[in-house]
Design goal:
heteropentamer, A mainly alpha (102), B mainly alpha (499), C mainly alpha (173), D mainly alpha (561), E mainly alpha (682), B: 499 residues, mainly alpha, two-stranded antiparallel ribbon, 2 strands, disordered C terminus, D: 561 residues, 68% helix, globular
Chain lengths: 102, 499, 173, 561, 682
């Protein structure tokens, strides 16, 4: 009945999520890492919406709205942190940020 | 369109007053700072303390009103029961002590800004939402409020590279973890069509066989919350962040994040207890890894903050034993067993021990100097016996040695574990706590056995607030160690199943 | 083969491609632009999933506000030049890819995302109206539903974000 | 005696020291450290030695002495009011008062004869230790506080009738002792203190799991309920699977074995003893090791009788190994304290042997030997400490031929030594012989164990006398030793009570063993061995009619010329 | 039956104890000679009471000469140990055996005390000496008087202690100290056997009391062949008990192989050698075996072992005594040898003969030791017989008294030793199967005895003087006695001031004379024709009937002949070498394996020393090494492994966010797999 089966969306969302994960793991620029995290969140959003449609109720979309709010706040904080780090160290390469270890 | 009925809102708001008070206070402090005192005075701290007390009074009020019944608010998205009550009280105690710690610490560090208290109150409110949450989305939002405020607090000392490093590490990993949590929520939603914990429980109880999506979702929830709780292998941020963050923040986050995360874990996994068979092995593995490696890793630490960080990982492992001991509930009387009681008791113990230990660190950090290394404690008992023996109590309590509160907590977790068949875990826990004692004792012998070297650690200036923290914590550690009955009774009144 | 499915495959290809490009690109600015692409594609998906309001918000908030902020910071910190960050070889990338893929394989292999859904309960009405602003509004502000409270909480969340950002980024003497 | 005290006499005995500690904590100032052996005297610019402020330190010392004497006196009241007739199992019972009602944890204390003797030993040795510790110059206040805390914890261990209460006291003992070793110990004190703490702690955490398991299975932490047949909790105990009971028994036993310590868990002992200050060593050897034996008697045996009987061969074997092993290793120790420490391993092997013979003789002897060991080894440690104070070394080779120089010292040392080698008419003999006799007649152990264990008599003579020979006899080997001082009056005052006890117990043991008759029978009943029909159970007054002389037919006829 | 003097018995033991205590606390104040006098008087007082008690006992009906008395004032059964039915009281058993020993101990002991007052007069530790002596007498009396075997054990170990203390009396010489240790430790080995024997007795009989008035003592039972303990009384059980007790006796009475301590024990002052290591303590084994004769007699096996060991020891020690140069060593080995005789007697069931020999031996061996002491005293602490000679005219009293002792020990008619030794040998000959062998070897040993004793007399008295009399005052003593000098540092002038050989003071001579008299006539109480002694002891002994293999006169004649052969041969040989008093040249000595063997105790001591001390020490050190490095090493490694692992694992905390994230994703995969396992697994 649904033109595109929900599972398709879910798998797509899983793939996007995984790409986001890979990005987080292999990128060195925290901004890009952060972008990859946003990618992961969006992947989840996709599955929320798809599931919501599947169940025929609005809840799936509600989650997305909250996730967007969270993402927005997260960006504010995250970029603030990145700026602050850049101020103290003049770099944001996370491979150079390891004063704290062991 | 159906007519919207707002009549229940005022009652619901009453239920949430403890949190709302904090929100209002945060706003008030911001305004006050802008218009009145401008970071100069102690007002924000005092106002915060008052607000916390008021919030606690609301808690007690709610409790006395709804004494023996569980109730929910805001269309079941918030639960009001003894767990939320105790969780809120624990968090408010944490906040109270944290404000006092910060009062002294921020002065000595030259960080005395009102924003700190705003963020602190907001983050406590987030954690309180986590404890109240009866819906995964509320849980998620609460967790994010807590986390965002903590990211900012960790990086609060903006001129310190260490602080900012800690902040960015915490932030990146935290965001990463919360993405997993969210994915987990979506999977649970995909199976249950709802994220309400009551619904989840009801549906899970009626499920036949396993749903892969549900199980994967449960696993990802465990990851997301396990990160906040600092379980191995999601722990690696902990030492770095504890180390880099301003000490007062470390103290606060150690306790508050743990309370929020574990009460959330309790709620979630209790709701999921019908599928305990599936998640139990994972929980057991995380518990064992955390207990063993948390303690082992702590042994070789030289920085007290890192040591306490690893110890907090180990404590998370102990608490995980309680999670693993959650009974498979069938009656609908949820979170009434020994497992949740013992976990909450332990969280209380952990609050006092941790706040006390960090309090001592703050107490020993005079202006311009920050206490860091365990070696700085050498001979403390000669130069400052009160601080030294106070610290000794916290360490012994963290080590779970009677007659301290830490022992009483550990003992109850043992009981819940044994009662629910987790004997293997209790044995691992017992043996792991031997390793733990090893490094706690190292702190103790540095203070007491060694002679002071060079200039002895001086007390911080304007240390009255932090001294009161030490006094409160030490008192609680001993009193609840000797007579835990009152606290336990608070945990059991609402609790017909437990004897 | 219906058009919708074809459309899905096309969009899926673009979204995966752009996501990969985000990861693969060494220039953060380009990564950001590919991410914007990805977000647009997702918005299109939402439209096909009859979530019109969400699609709109996706474009406004994500592709618009958030990504602009990203680019702003990249420019601010002058990190736009490619290869401003040295890349070193090592096991990190291969191990990361293997682990991430095994995660995907585990959840999909077990059927966690590819099977087991109940029969769809979607109705024509839900498909038609479910994503409109009105429906969203009624859900969001109904005290009988949990969203009202979550919505209120979101305000605090944003407040925290604002205060946090100010605390962190404000330059002090 | 005021009524409130008389009513809760036992609680007063337990908690009086802690009250003293609190008074010390709050009512006394922290004194300046006096000139100490380890540290140079504070010399002022003009060469004058800085005036020390002994007053407050002395006040602390005197107060602690007074207070421990008070505690001892109060514990003597226990002795005099004790009823030795086999009536109530526990006397001076206080409680059960609800402590943690949610888990049925009660404050419940009471003593039987075994506890009584060990409590007296505790208060007595603490008193002497305080007296001896007048020589402590550093951090006097803390020292005395820890001693008093230790006393409370140890006494509590011997009184607790509730498993949780017991465990709390049991662990609480570690803390003050840890500090005593760590702060006032010798060179490797930190290592020793940590090892001591960790080793014993490691042993007892599993016991905690066991205790908890018992509670979960039975709903009771009360030893009284768990042990007494017919009680609900006991019935539940019977329902636990034998395999599980064995694990529980192992958990309890491990804790006690480490504390005793039995081979092969003994290695913390030499380290702790060598590094501890004298009073610490005395209390460690004199009392704390007995906690392990007491644990077996009070908990492990009555709670798990079948398991204990089944495991008896293992324990007997380990005990015997410990006896020989400890003695052999003691022989070649160059350090006097270490020698005495290893001798403790050997002596405690006897105690364990006695316990696991399950005979009246063995059990009585074991308790008596516990007390004896406290006295004789305590005395030896005191004297080694005195020697250390004089010369700052415990190496045997640093002495030699000093009997001529310190004859009184040598005489006291000889008495302690003879008590330790179990010479008749000293206390050691009564304990050791009755143990061996009990082991011999026990069907569980038998003569082989007695035979091997009795080699300990020879070995103890070897290591003790050899040490005496090397330290005291022969020509004076070190010129510096010629100026050694003989015992001071204070030192004699510490030792004389011990000597008196050595002979009192050695010559009039019934005064002490009468307290043990009832409890030992109780233990035998708890373990289910009441019907063993051993020679010790017989009636000695059976009159044999002379006419029955033909009874033994296989005997060679004895010609009476 | 009531003993009229029962309420005096406690004084027998109490008086020496009082002496001990007084000397402990007041000895230094009393000083010389008062402390010695006090001790001596108290022992003689004890002797006097013993005599009184003895008289009243003898007045009892012969069959029932047994009484019990408290060892404490006030009477009654004062318990020492009471546990269950295990009960030991401080009660004295008054019977012929105990009273005989009482008299010997207090009588001979008193004499030796008296002697010591002279002998030790120069010693600065004079009070300490008498302290120990009194303590010894006390314990010895406990040993003989104890009404149960555990009380006997008290005395047994107590005298061991005193022996230890007195051997190492001059402790400043390490050799003395070592000898003391050796004595104590070797004795302890025996004591273990004894203690196990006691335990076996309790296990078998359920009591440790010898006899009771009701007939419930274990000897009462043994006599009737019944037992009330858990173990049935069979021959094997009796044999085991007997052998265990005999191990104890071996230790105390210096039987092979536990005799090694006794020769070394001569390091003690000579009165000690006389009292403890000749007259009283070393015979305790015989007393004990005699006491438990009802049990011993049950097992032929045990009896054979005892007799064989005794006889072997007798021969073995005699061969060693042949070549010793130290006058006290000769006497020591002679003592070992004579004790062997006694055990031969016990072994063949001739308990009364053995006890008879105990008594006569006490007389003559004490005499010989005291005489030797007198010689040593005269020679200014020279003990080497090679440096003596020609003393017969210089110290006449000593010489004549020693002559009596010599005759007695050689078994010359009619001296004391003759009767007792002969009775043993005669009874031995009647032992089933082995009797004649025992007899022949016994007689051969008697010849050896006569030979070495004559050698002693010859070397000391009869051969020519081999020392420079004037030099004796120069303190040019052998190293071995440096310590003895050392102790007398303060008394240099008055002690050895007057040079030359001098007869001992009266206090030393009177005991000699008394003992000589006893040695001469003491044997007459037990002649084969009128054996009063045997009759006297009969109530306490239970042994088989004795049937000597040949008529009594034959035995007596053989005995005299044996003694005469030995004495005559030796004397004639030494008279030929009167100049240097040596039968062999140095070269001959060095080349003679037999001589060297004998001189070196057949290397037995070296062997045991090597085995016991060196190998034992090595084992102990090795064991100690194992303890530190393996048993404790494991513990420490386990403890250290925590730190080590910590150091290793903390490296995983690299500080790089990406590696943390990697760890997290690893955890995610792990958790997801674990959670999904129920599905993936199928």
């Amino acid at each position: 009945m649904l033109p595109v089966p929900t599972e398709y969306y879910l798998v797509l969302s899983g793939v996007l999520f995984t790409i986001g994960v890979i990005g987080v793991l292999i990128k060195r620029n925290p901004i890009v890492i952060f972008m990859c995290i946003e990618l992961m969140l969006n992947a989840v959003n996709l599955s929320f919406v798809a599931l919501g449609r599947h169940f025929g109720h609005i809840n799936g979309q509600m989650y997305v709205i909250f996730v967007m709010a969270v993402a927005a706040a997260e960006v504010a904080i995250g970029l603030g942190i990145i700026v602050a780090v850049f101020r103290t160290r003049e770099t944001i390469n996370i491979d150079e940020i390891n004063l704290l270890k062991y | 369109m159906p007519a919207i009925d707002f009549s229940s809102v005022s009652v619901d708001t009453m239920m949430l007053m403890p949190v709302i008070v904090l929100w209002l206070t945060a706003a008030a402090i911001m305004l006050g700072n802008t218009f009145f005192w401008r970071d100069k005075r102690a007002w924000p701290a005092i106002i915060s303390l008052v607000a916390i007390v008021v919030s606690a009074l609301f808690c007690f009020n709610i409790r006395s009103t709804y004494a023996d019944s569980m109730t929910t608010a805001f269309a079941d998205s918030v639960k009001v029961d003894y767990v939320s009550f105790m969780g809120n009280i624990a968090l408010l105690v944490t906040a109270f002590l944290s404000v006092l710690v910060a009062w002294t610490y921020l002065r000595n560090k030259g960080l005395n800004r009102s924003d700190y208290y705003v963020l602190l109150l907001l983050s406590v409110s987030g954690a309180m939402l986590m404890t109240d949450a009866n819906d995964l989305i509320v849980l998620f939002l609460g967790l994010e409020i807590l986390s965002f405020a903590l990211y900012a607090l960790v990086g609060f000392s903006t001129k310190e590279a260490r602080s900012e490093e800690a902040s960015i590490k915490y932030f990146l990993l935290g965001a990463f973890a919360s993405a997993f949590l969210l994915y987990g929520i979506s999977m649970v939603y995909g199976v249950m069509q709802s994220t309400n914990l009551d619904v989840i429980f009801a549906k899970a109880s009626q499920m036949h066989g396993f749903s892969a999506m549900l199980l994967a979702g449960v696993g990802l929830l465990l990851v997301g919350l396990g990160f906040k709780a600092a379980l191995i292998p999601f722990h690696q941020w902990t030492p770095d962040v504890y180390d880099g963050a301003p000490t007062s923040v470390t103290a606060f986050m150690a306790a508050a994040a743990k309370i929020g995360a574990f009460i959330a874990l309790l709620r979630v996994f209790d709701a999921l207890s019908p599928v305990k068979v599936a998640w139990l092995p994972a929980v057991q593995i995380l518990a064992i890894l955390s207990m063993i490696f948390g303690n082992i890793l702590a042994i070789s630490q030289t920085s007290l903050k890192r040591l306490l960080a690893y110890s907090s990982i180990a404590h998370a492992g102990y608490l995980m034993v309680a999670i693993a001991s959650l009974p498979v509930s069938t009656t609908g009387h949820r979170l009434t067993g020994l497992a949740s009681q013992s976990a909450i008791f332990y969280l209380f113990a952990y609050v006092f021990m941790t706040m006390g230990a960090f309090g001592v660190m703050v107490y020993l950090s005079p202006e311009g100097k920050e206490f860091q290394s365990i070696k700085d404690l050498k001979g403390l008992s000669r130069t400052n016996p009160v601080a030294a023996y106070g610290m000794m109590f916290f360490m012994l309590s963290l080590g779970g040695i009677p007659p301290t509160m830490g022992f009483m907590g550990k003992w109850q977790i043992f009981m819940s574990a044994v009662q629910n068949g987790q004997i293997m875990l209790s044995i691992v826990m017992a043996l792991a706590s031997v390793f733990a004692v090893y490094y706690y004792l190292r702190v103790v012998y540095m203070m007491t056995f060694e002679e002071p070297v060079g200039a002895s650690p001086k007390a911080a200036t304007s240390c009255a607030p932090v001294r009161s923290v030490l006094a409160i914590s030490a008192f609680a550690t001993i009193i609840f160690g000797l007579a835990p009955g009152w606290l336990i009774s608070l945990l059991t009144v609402n609790n017909p199943a437990a004897k | 083969m219906n058009w919708e499915l074809l459309f899905f495959w096309m969009l899926a290809t673009v979204s995966i491609g752009s996501a990969l490009a985000v990861v693969a690109n060494k220039n953060p600015v380009r990564s950001a632009l590919f991410l914007v692409t990805n977000f647009f594609v997702l918005a299109l998906f939402y439209l096909t999933l009859s979530a019109q309001f969400v699609a709109l918000v996706q474009v406004i908030v994500y592709a618009g506000a958030i990504m602009v902020l990203f680019l702003f910071v990249i420019m601010l910190l002058n990190l736009g030049a490619p290869e401003s960050l040295r890349e070193r070889g090592g096991l990190q990338a291969p191990v990361a890819i293997v682990l991430a893929l095994s995660f995907l394989i585990a959840i999909s292999g077990a059927g966690a995302i590819s099977s087991g859904l109940p029969k769809s309960a979607a109705t024509a009405a839900s498909l038609e109206k479910g994503g409109e602003v009105e429906a969203i509004g009624h859900a969001l502000f109904n005290p009988g539903l949990p969203w009202l409270f979550a919505f209120e909480v979101t305000s605090i969340l944003l407040l925290v974000g604002v205060v946090g950002a100010i605390v962190l980024a404000k330059r002090r003497a | 005696m005021p009524d409130t005290i008389a009513k809760h006499l036992l609680s007063w005995v337990i908690f009086l020291p802690i009250i003293g500690a609190l008074i010390l904590m709050f009512a006394f100032k922290r004194p300046q450290d006096e000139e100490d052996a380890h540290h140079h005297a504070i010399v002022l610019a003009d060469g004058e030695v800085a005036p020390t402020t002994p007053n407050s330190a002395n006040a602390i010392r005197n107060f602690t002495l007074f207070w421990s004497a008070l505690t001892f006196a109060l514990s003597l009241a226990l002795l005099f009011k004790f009823d030795t007739s086999p009536g109530e199992k526990f006397q001076f019972v206080d409680g059960p008062f609800e402590w943690i009602p949610q888990f049925h944890v009660n404050y419940h204390i009471g003593i039987d004869g075994i506890s009584l003797l060990l409590i007296l030993l505790t208060t007595f040795l603490t008193l002497l230790s305080v007296g001896f510790s007048f020589n402590i110059k550093r951090r006097v206040k803390e020292y005395m506080i820890f001693l008093l805390l230790l006393e409370t914890a140890m006494t509590g261990v011997f009184c607790a009738l509730d498993l949780v209460l017991f465990y709390v006291f049991w662990e609480a003992v570690l803390i003050p002792m840890y500090f005593l070793i760590g702060i006032w110990g010798h060179d490797r004190r930190i290592f020793a203190a940590v090892k001591f703490f960790l080793y014993t702690f490691a042993g007892s955490v599993l016991m905690l799991v066991g205790i908890v398991y018992l509670y979960v299975a039975t709903g009771s932490f009360s030893v009284v309920d768990l042990v007494s047949r017919g009680a609900d909790a006991h019935q539940l105990l019977l329902g636990i699977k034998p395999q599980t009971m064995l694990y529980l028994f192992s958990a309890f036993s491990l804790a006690f074995m480490i504390k005793v310590p039995m081979f092969p868990f003994h290695t913390w002992l030499p380290d702790a003893h060598v590094e501890a200050p004298t009073a610490g060593s005395v209390i460690l050897a004199g009392i704390m090791l007995k906690m392990g034996a007491y644990g077996f008697i009070r908990f492990a045996l009555p709670l798990f009788p079948e398991q204990a009987k089944a495991a008896a061969p293992l324990f007997l074997a380990l005990a015997v190994i410990g006896i020989v092993y400890g003695a052999v290793v003691a022989t070649v120790q160059p350090d006097m304290k270490k020698l005495v420490a290893y001798s403790s391993v050997s002596h405690l092997g006897f105690v364990m042997l006695g316990i696991f013979s399950f005979t009246k003789l063995g059990l009585t002897g074991a308790v008596l030997q516990s007390v004896n060991h406290g006295i004789s080894t305590g005395m030896l440690f005191f004297m080694v400490g005195m020697m250390y104070e004089r010369k700052h070394t415990r190496e045997i080779s640093a002495y030699g031929g000093i009997k001529r120089i310190v004859p009184v010292f040598a005489a006291f040392f000889l008495i302690a030594l003879l008590s330790s080698v179990a010479l008749p008419l000293t206390n050691g003999f009564v304990g050791e012989f009755t143990i061996l006799q009990g082991v011999y007649i026990s069907p569980i152990s038998g003569s082989i164990y007695a035979g091997i264990a009795s080699t300990g008599m020879v070995l103890s003579a070897i290591y003790m006398l050899w040490m005496f020979q090397r330290v005291f006899t022969g020509p004076v080997t070190h010129e510096s030793n010629k100026s050694l001082l003989d015992l001071t009056k204070v030192e004699i005052a510490v030792l004389v009570p011990l000597v008196a006890l050595v002979f009192w117990i050695g010559c009039a043991s019934p005064y002490w063993t009468k307290f043990l008759t009832a409890p030992v029978t109780n233990i035998q009943n708890d373990v289910g061995l009441g019907q063993m029909q051993l020679p010790e159970d017989g009636d000695p007054r059976v009159i044999i009619p002379k006419e029955q002389s033909k009874a033994g037919k296989e005997i060679i006829p004895i010609a009476s010329n | 039956m009531q003993l009229g003097t029962a309420n005096l018995v406690w004084l027998i033991t109490a008086l020496p104890l009082v002496g001990f205590l007084l000397n402990v606390f007041l000895g230094r104040k009393l000083g010389k000679p008062n402390s010695g006098l006090l001790a001596t008087v108290l022992v003689f007082a004890s002797f006097a009471i013993s005599v009184l008690v003895f008289m009243s006992m003898v007045s009892m009906d012969g069959e029932h000469r047994r009484a019990f008395a408290s060892l404490l004032p006030g009477g009654g059964e004062v318990p020492w140990i009471v546990i269950g039915s295990f009960k030991v009281t401080f009660t004295a058993l008054i019977d012929p055996l105990s009273m005989l020993m009482c008299l010997i101990v207090t009588g001979v002991g008193g004499l030796i005390h008296m002697y010591a007052m002279g002998y030790m007069a120069e010693d600065k530790d004079y009070p300490r000496f008498f302290t120990y002596l009194n303590l010894f007498i006390f314990f010895m009396l406990i040993l003989v008087l104890g009404s149960n075997i555990l009380l006997m054990f008290v005395g047994w170990e107590g005298v061991g202690l005193c022996s230890y203390l007195l051997i190492s009396f001059w402790f400043e010489d390490m050799n003395n100290s070592k000898a003391g240790n050796k004595a104590f430790i070797v004795n302890r080995i025996g004591d273990v056997g004894y203690a196990l024997g006691i335990m076996a007795i309790f296990a078998t009989f359920g009591t440790l009391t010898f006899y009771t008035a009701e007939g419930t003592g274990f000897l009462d039972m043994a006599k009737h062949g019944i037992a009330l303990g858990g173990v049935p009384l069979t021959i094997e059980v009796a044999g085991i008990i007997a052998l265990l007790l005999f191990i104890g006796a071996c230790g105390k009475s210096a039987q092979f192989p536990l005799f090694v301590w006794l020769p070394d024990a001569m390091a003690g002052p000579t009165p000690v050698s006389a009292l403890i290591h000749a007259a009283t303590m070393v015979t305790a084994g015989v007393v004990m075996i005699t006491r438990v004769s009802p049990i011993i007699s049950m097992s032929t096996m045990a009896m054979t072992v005892i007799a064989s060991v005794g006889l072997f020891t007798a021969v073995f020690a005699a061969t060693i005594a042949l070549t010793q140069n130290d006058i006290k060593k000769v006497l020591a080995y002679s003592t070992v040898s004579q004790l062997g005789y006694m055990f031969l007697g016990c072994g063949v069931g001739a308990y009364s003969a053995a006890m008879f020999h105990v008594m006569t031996h006490a007389f003559f061996k004490a005499l010989l030791f005291l005489g030797a002491g007198s010689v040593i005293h005269a020679m200014h602490h020279e003990q080497d017989m090679r440096k003596m000679g020609g003393l017969q005219n210089k110290i006449k009293t000593t010489y004549f008294t020693m002559l009596v002792g010599w005759l007695a020990i050689c078994g010359m008619f009619p001296f004391a030793g003759f009767w007792s030794k002969d009775e043993i040998l005669a009874n031995a000959s009647g032992f089933p199967k082995l009797g004649m062998m025992f007899y022949i070897i016994g007689v051969a040993t008697a010849i050896l005895t006569a030979f070495y004793m004559t050698r002693l007399m010859a070397k000391t008295f009869w051969t020519n003087q081999r020392f420079d009399e004037a030099a004796l005052s120069d303190h040019d003593h052998s190293d071995a006695h440096a310590a003895e000098d050392h102790t007398t540092d303060h008394g240099d002038d008055h002690a050895h001031g007057h040079g030359g050989v001098q007869e001992s003071p009266k206090s030393m001579l009177i005991p000699l004379i008394v003992l000589a008299a006893l040695s001469a006539v003491g044997g007459l109480v037990g002649t084969p024709w009128l054996n009063k002694f045997e009759a006297y002891l009969e109530p306490v002994i239970a042994g088989p009937e004795m049937h000597p293999a040949f008529p009594i006169p034959v035995g007596l004649v053989i005995g005299v002949l044996a003694a005469a052969i030995g004495m005559g041969l030796c004397r004639s040989l030494y008279m030929k070498h009167k100049e240097n008093g040596e039968l062999m040249t140095e070269e001959q000595k060095n080349n003679s394996a037999v001589y060297q063997g004998s001189l070196n105790l057949w290397y037995f001591d070296e062997m045991t020393t090597h085995l016991g001390v060196n190998t034992g020490g090595r084992v102990a050190r090795f064991w100690s090494w194992i303890d530190r490095n393996i048993v404790d090493g494991l513990v420490n490694t386990l403890g250290g492994s925590g730190s080590l692992m910590s150091e290793i694992f903390r490296r995983s905390q690299t500080g790089f966010v990406r590696s943390y994230a990697l760890m997290m994703i690893l955890g995610v995969v792990g958790v997801v797999v674990a959670v999904l396992w129920p599905i993936i697994g199928h």
